[in-house]
Design a protein that fits this description.
297 residues, alpha+beta, Immunoglobulin-like, four-stranded antiparallel beta sheet, 8 helices, membrane, signal, transmembrane
Length: 297
Protein backbone atom coordinates (compact mmCIF):
# COMPACT_ATOMS: atom_id res chain seq x y z
CA UNK A 1 0.00 0.00 0.00
CA UNK A 2 1.41 3.36 -0.97
CA UNK A 3 1.74 6.30 1.41
CA UNK A 4 -0.91 8.21 -0.52
CA UNK A 5 -3.54 5.48 -0.12
CA UNK A 6 -2.77 5.23 3.57
CA UNK A 7 -3.32 8.97 3.98
CA UNK A 8 -6.66 8.87 2.16
CA UNK A 9 -7.86 6.02 4.32
CA UNK A 10 -6.90 7.85 7.49
CA UNK A 11 -8.79 10.99 6.45
CA UNK A 12 -11.85 8.89 5.65
CA UNK A 13 -11.82 7.36 9.10
CA UNK A 14 -11.56 10.80 10.71
CA UNK A 15 -14.57 12.01 8.71
CA UNK A 16 -16.57 8.99 9.84
CA UNK A 17 -15.77 9.71 13.46
CA UNK A 18 -16.99 13.34 13.28
CA UNK A 19 -20.08 12.73 11.10
CA UNK A 20 -22.43 11.58 13.90
CA UNK A 21 -21.50 14.59 16.01
CA UNK A 22 -22.23 17.04 13.18
CA UNK A 23 -25.59 15.38 12.46
CA UNK A 24 -26.56 15.51 16.15
CA UNK A 25 -25.65 19.21 16.35
CA UNK A 26 -27.85 19.98 13.32
CA UNK A 27 -30.81 18.30 14.97
CA UNK A 28 -30.30 20.35 18.12
CA UNK A 29 -30.20 23.56 16.09
CA UNK A 30 -33.42 22.62 14.28
CA UNK A 31 -35.23 21.81 17.53
CA UNK A 32 -34.01 25.04 19.15
CA UNK A 33 -35.11 27.11 16.15
CA UNK A 34 -38.58 25.52 16.21
CA UNK A 35 -38.96 26.20 19.94
CA UNK A 36 -37.73 29.80 19.71
CA UNK A 37 -39.94 30.46 16.69
CA UNK A 38 -43.07 29.38 18.55
CA UNK A 39 -42.21 31.63 21.48
CA UNK A 40 -41.59 34.64 19.24
CA UNK A 41 -44.84 33.96 17.38
CA UNK A 42 -46.78 34.11 20.65
CA UNK A 43 -45.11 37.46 21.38
CA UNK A 44 -46.31 38.83 17.98
CA UNK A 45 -42.70 39.24 16.79
CA UNK A 46 -43.57 37.80 13.40
CA UNK A 47 -40.58 39.14 11.45
CA UNK A 48 -38.09 37.43 13.76
CA UNK A 49 -40.33 34.37 13.95
CA UNK A 50 -40.09 33.88 10.18
CA UNK A 51 -36.32 33.61 10.36
CA UNK A 52 -36.50 30.85 12.98
CA UNK A 53 -39.09 28.83 11.02
CA UNK A 54 -37.03 29.17 7.84
CA UNK A 55 -34.12 27.58 9.67
CA UNK A 56 -36.03 24.60 11.02
CA UNK A 57 -37.86 24.12 7.69
CA UNK A 58 -34.60 23.49 5.81
CA UNK A 59 -33.77 20.11 4.23
CA UNK A 60 -31.04 19.43 6.80
CA UNK A 61 -33.60 19.22 9.63
CA UNK A 62 -35.46 16.03 10.61
CA UNK A 63 -38.65 15.40 8.65
CA UNK A 64 -40.91 15.67 11.70
CA UNK A 65 -39.53 19.07 12.69
CA UNK A 66 -39.38 20.27 9.08
CA UNK A 67 -43.04 19.44 8.44
CA UNK A 68 -44.26 21.48 11.45
CA UNK A 69 -41.98 24.41 10.64
CA UNK A 70 -43.21 24.54 7.03
CA UNK A 71 -46.82 24.79 8.20
CA UNK A 72 -45.95 27.39 10.83
CA UNK A 73 -43.97 29.41 8.29
CA UNK A 74 -46.94 29.53 5.92
CA UNK A 75 -49.20 30.80 8.73
CA UNK A 76 -46.68 33.47 9.82
CA UNK A 77 -46.25 34.69 6.22
CA UNK A 78 -50.01 35.18 5.90
CA UNK A 79 -50.19 37.12 9.19
CA UNK A 80 -47.13 39.35 8.81
CA UNK A 81 -48.13 42.89 7.68
CA UNK A 82 -46.06 45.04 5.31
CA UNK A 83 -45.58 48.79 5.09
CA UNK A 84 -44.54 51.14 2.30
CA UNK A 85 -42.90 54.32 3.63
CA UNK A 86 -43.28 57.49 1.59
CA UNK A 87 -42.24 61.12 2.01
CA UNK A 88 -43.04 64.39 0.29
CA UNK A 89 -42.73 68.14 0.73
CA UNK A 90 -45.59 70.47 1.56
CA UNK A 91 -45.70 71.18 -2.17
CA UNK A 92 -46.34 67.48 -2.93
CA UNK A 93 -42.80 66.87 -4.26
CA UNK A 94 -41.73 63.26 -3.66
CA UNK A 95 -38.61 62.71 -1.55
CA UNK A 96 -36.37 59.65 -1.63
CA UNK A 97 -33.29 60.70 0.41
CA UNK A 98 -35.09 60.03 3.68
CA UNK A 99 -33.99 57.92 6.64
CA UNK A 100 -36.68 55.98 8.52
CA UNK A 101 -36.24 55.08 12.19
CA UNK A 102 -38.78 52.73 13.78
CA UNK A 103 -38.94 52.34 17.56
CA UNK A 104 -35.47 53.86 17.90
CA UNK A 105 -33.85 51.51 15.35
CA UNK A 106 -32.74 52.54 11.85
CA UNK A 107 -34.85 50.64 9.35
CA UNK A 108 -34.29 52.35 5.98
CA UNK A 109 -31.57 54.70 4.74
CA UNK A 110 -33.49 55.71 1.61
CA UNK A 111 -37.00 55.30 0.19
CA UNK A 112 -37.38 53.15 -2.92
CA UNK A 113 -41.07 52.22 -2.82
CA UNK A 114 -40.53 48.65 -1.62
CA UNK A 115 -42.78 47.08 1.01
CA UNK A 116 -41.14 46.32 4.35
CA UNK A 117 -42.35 43.53 6.64
CA UNK A 118 -43.11 44.71 10.17
CA UNK A 119 -44.48 43.27 13.37
CA UNK A 120 -48.11 44.11 14.12
CA UNK A 121 -48.82 46.62 16.86
CA UNK A 122 -48.03 50.24 17.73
CA UNK A 123 -44.81 51.76 16.39
CA UNK A 124 -43.13 55.16 16.66
CA UNK A 125 -41.82 56.22 13.26
CA UNK A 126 -39.35 59.06 12.67
CA UNK A 127 -38.54 60.41 9.20
CA UNK A 128 -35.30 62.35 8.74
CA UNK A 129 -34.26 64.38 5.69
CA UNK A 130 -31.15 66.54 5.40
CA UNK A 131 -31.87 70.24 5.94
CA UNK A 132 -35.44 69.66 7.14
CA UNK A 133 -37.08 69.27 10.52
CA UNK A 134 -37.76 65.59 11.30
CA UNK A 135 -41.31 64.26 11.16
CA UNK A 136 -42.52 61.88 13.88
CA UNK A 137 -45.73 59.92 14.06
CA UNK A 138 -47.23 56.91 15.81
CA UNK A 139 -48.87 54.21 13.68
CA UNK A 140 -50.74 51.02 14.49
CA UNK A 141 -50.08 48.13 12.09
CA UNK A 142 -52.65 45.33 11.99
CA UNK A 143 -52.02 41.65 11.26
CA UNK A 144 -52.47 40.60 7.60
CA UNK A 145 -52.38 44.28 6.53
CA UNK A 146 -50.52 44.48 3.22
CA UNK A 147 -48.64 47.43 1.69
CA UNK A 148 -49.85 49.88 4.33
CA UNK A 149 -48.81 53.39 3.20
CA UNK A 150 -47.16 55.51 5.90
CA UNK A 151 -46.62 59.07 4.59
CA UNK A 152 -44.49 61.88 6.00
CA UNK A 153 -44.90 65.48 4.80
CA UNK A 154 -41.87 67.72 5.33
CA UNK A 155 -41.97 71.50 5.36
CA UNK A 156 -40.41 73.27 2.41
CA UNK A 157 -36.80 74.28 3.05
CA UNK A 158 -37.66 77.99 2.96
CA UNK A 159 -40.44 77.62 5.53
CA UNK A 160 -38.22 75.45 7.73
CA UNK A 161 -35.39 78.03 7.60
CA UNK A 162 -37.79 80.86 8.42
CA UNK A 163 -39.14 78.96 11.41
CA UNK A 164 -35.61 78.26 12.62
CA UNK A 165 -34.75 81.98 12.37
CA UNK A 166 -37.91 82.83 14.30
CA UNK A 167 -36.92 80.42 17.07
CA UNK A 168 -33.47 82.01 17.23
CA UNK A 169 -35.00 85.50 17.53
CA UNK A 170 -37.33 84.33 20.28
CA UNK A 171 -34.40 82.72 22.09
CA UNK A 172 -32.37 85.93 21.85
CA UNK A 173 -35.28 87.99 23.13
CA UNK A 174 -35.87 85.66 26.06
CA UNK A 175 -32.19 85.89 27.05
CA UNK A 176 -32.47 89.65 27.79
CA UNK A 177 -32.60 89.98 31.59
CA UNK A 178 -35.70 91.70 32.99
CA UNK A 179 -35.27 95.05 34.73
CA UNK A 180 -34.62 94.92 38.49
CA UNK A 181 -37.78 94.49 40.49
CA UNK A 182 -37.08 97.47 42.75
CA UNK A 183 -36.03 99.93 40.03
CA UNK A 184 -39.45 101.60 39.89
CA UNK A 185 -39.73 102.06 43.66
CA UNK A 186 -42.69 99.65 43.84
CA UNK A 187 -41.15 97.78 46.79
CA UNK A 188 -40.89 100.96 48.88
CA UNK A 189 -44.45 101.97 48.09
CA UNK A 190 -45.70 98.50 48.99
CA UNK A 191 -43.97 98.64 52.37
CA UNK A 192 -45.33 102.15 52.89
CA UNK A 193 -48.89 100.97 52.24
CA UNK A 194 -48.49 98.04 54.63
CA UNK A 195 -47.12 100.23 57.42
CA UNK A 196 -49.80 102.80 56.66
CA UNK A 197 -52.46 100.11 57.14
CA UNK A 198 -50.90 99.11 60.46
CA UNK A 199 -50.81 102.75 61.49
CA UNK A 200 -54.47 103.20 60.62
CA UNK A 201 -55.48 100.17 62.66
CA UNK A 202 -53.42 101.34 65.61
CA UNK A 203 -54.85 104.88 65.31
CA UNK A 204 -58.39 103.53 65.19
CA UNK A 205 -57.79 101.42 68.30
CA UNK A 206 -56.21 104.36 70.09
CA UNK A 207 -59.19 106.59 69.24
CA UNK A 208 -61.67 103.97 70.40
CA UNK A 209 -59.98 103.15 73.69
CA UNK A 210 -59.17 106.81 74.32
CA UNK A 211 -62.75 108.01 73.85
CA UNK A 212 -64.13 105.09 75.88
CA UNK A 213 -61.64 105.61 78.71
CA UNK A 214 -62.22 109.35 78.88
CA UNK A 215 -65.98 108.86 78.89
CA UNK A 216 -65.75 106.36 81.76
CA UNK A 217 -63.43 108.73 83.65
CA UNK A 218 -65.99 111.57 83.38
CA UNK A 219 -68.71 109.19 84.52
CA UNK A 220 -66.64 108.27 87.59
CA UNK A 221 -66.02 111.92 88.47
CA UNK A 222 -69.72 112.73 88.11
CA UNK A 223 -70.89 109.57 89.91
CA UNK A 224 -69.10 107.22 92.27
CA UNK A 225 -66.09 109.53 92.77
CA UNK A 226 -68.23 111.98 94.71
CA UNK A 227 -69.40 109.26 97.09
CA UNK A 228 -65.98 107.52 97.05
CA UNK A 229 -67.53 104.10 96.47
CA UNK A 230 -66.07 103.31 92.99
CA UNK A 231 -65.32 99.61 92.40
CA UNK A 232 -61.63 98.78 91.99
CA UNK A 233 -62.25 96.52 88.99
CA UNK A 234 -64.03 99.31 87.12
CA UNK A 235 -61.22 101.77 87.81
CA UNK A 236 -58.61 99.24 86.62
CA UNK A 237 -60.58 98.59 83.41
CA UNK A 238 -60.68 102.30 82.66
CA UNK A 239 -56.94 102.67 83.28
CA UNK A 240 -56.26 99.72 80.92
CA UNK A 241 -58.26 101.37 78.16
CA UNK A 242 -56.38 104.63 78.57
CA UNK A 243 -53.06 102.70 78.51
CA UNK A 244 -54.09 100.91 75.31
CA UNK A 245 -55.02 104.25 73.79
CA UNK A 246 -51.52 105.60 74.58
CA UNK A 247 -49.85 102.49 73.12
CA UNK A 248 -52.02 102.55 70.00
CA UNK A 249 -51.24 106.21 69.48
CA UNK A 250 -47.50 105.53 69.71
CA UNK A 251 -47.69 102.63 67.27
CA UNK A 252 -49.79 104.67 64.87
CA UNK A 253 -47.37 107.61 65.06
CA UNK A 254 -44.30 105.43 64.36
CA UNK A 255 -45.97 103.37 61.63
CA UNK A 256 -47.35 106.35 59.75
CA UNK A 257 -44.06 108.19 60.12
CA UNK A 258 -42.04 105.32 58.64
CA UNK A 259 -44.65 104.78 55.92
CA UNK A 260 -44.42 108.45 54.95
CA UNK A 261 -40.62 108.25 54.82
CA UNK A 262 -40.65 105.15 52.60
CA UNK A 263 -43.20 106.64 50.28
CA UNK A 264 -41.21 109.85 49.85
CA UNK A 265 -37.99 107.90 49.36
CA UNK A 266 -39.50 105.93 46.47
CA UNK A 267 -40.01 109.26 44.73
CA UNK A 268 -39.40 107.96 41.20
CA UNK A 269 -43.14 107.41 40.85
CA UNK A 270 -44.57 109.00 37.67
CA UNK A 271 -46.93 111.93 38.13
CA UNK A 272 -49.98 110.11 36.84
CA UNK A 273 -49.21 107.20 39.18
CA UNK A 274 -48.65 109.54 42.11
CA UNK A 275 -52.08 111.05 41.59
CA UNK A 276 -53.59 107.59 41.90
CA UNK A 277 -51.64 106.65 45.05
CA UNK A 278 -53.74 106.44 48.23
CA UNK A 279 -52.98 109.07 50.90
CA UNK A 280 -53.25 108.59 54.65
CA UNK A 281 -54.72 111.49 56.68
CA UNK A 282 -55.50 112.12 60.36
CA UNK A 283 -58.08 114.75 61.32
CA UNK A 284 -58.89 115.91 64.88
CA UNK A 285 -62.50 115.74 65.98
CA UNK A 286 -64.25 116.57 69.18
CA UNK A 287 -63.25 114.04 71.83
CA UNK A 288 -60.63 112.26 69.69
CA UNK A 289 -59.29 111.98 66.14
CA UNK A 290 -60.34 110.51 62.82
CA UNK A 291 -58.03 108.55 60.46
CA UNK A 292 -58.77 108.10 56.78
CA UNK A 293 -57.31 107.09 53.43
CA UNK A 294 -58.21 108.67 50.11
CA UNK A 295 -57.11 108.32 46.53
CA UNK A 296 -58.26 107.27 43.09
CA UNK A 297 -58.19 103.70 41.69
Amino acid sequence: MTKRSVLVSALGCIACLFAPSAAAQSKEQCAAAAEQGQKLRDEKKLVETRGKFLLCASESCPAVVRKDCVNWLSDVDSRTPSVVFRAQTAGARTLSAVRVIVDGQRLIEGLDGRAISMDPGMHKVRFESEGRAPVEQTVVINERERNRAVMATFEDEAASSERGSSRERDSSASSVPPPPAGSSGGGGRTAAFILGGVGLLAAGGAVYFGITGLQETRDYHDGCAKTKNCAGSDVDGTRTKLLLADIGGGVALVSLGVATYLFIRSGSTPKNEARNTPHIALSPIRGGAMAGIDGAW
